[in-house]
Predict the structure of KCMB4 protein.
Amino acid sequence: MARSRAVYEYTEAEDKSMRLGFLLIAAGLLSLLGLGCCWLRPALQERGGGGSANCTVLAVRQLGERFACTFSCGAACRGTARYPCLQVLVRTSRSSAPALLHEDERQLRTNPKCSYIPPCARDDQENSENVTYKQKYWKEKVGSQPFTCYFNQHLRPDDVMLKRTHDETVLLHCFLWPVVTFLVGVLIVVLTICAKSLAVRAEAIKKKKHL
């Protein structure tokens, strides 16, 4: 009986392989759990009750109010500059009420009053020129041409986004690698067990032949 138990004991290499497999399984499960709680849930909340629509520009204007932004000019060099507030008002195919356009959800959370946040430069004049360029773009190049925008009637009924931060591609990549890690771990464990089982059977057959 002791001899039979010894036969089924894993070698040091097989033991390390099993540990690696279980480690990958745990890492994959924890990654999926963390992404589900911290990232997928808010992403689905943003997408829930929303959809796409055709938007048409109604008005493009700069407000007199200016907002602060933080620029970086080196490892230990930081400062604050200001930029004018640009508002792009649009009408969607889902509603006749005007809505404020934003670049994406991140820009909406950063500054819900404006439609565009320029890359923060040290010079306020450069920030103003970037905003003016964007203003001309919406007035002259887009004009009355319809374009696709995204909305969420439950969370932000008076705002629309030019693009989504949490699109299908990002969701796929974020959940693909934890699943692959989990499956690789399962594969390592299964292959190790199968290899050990075959080795034990081969040893048993070899002993029968010698009897």
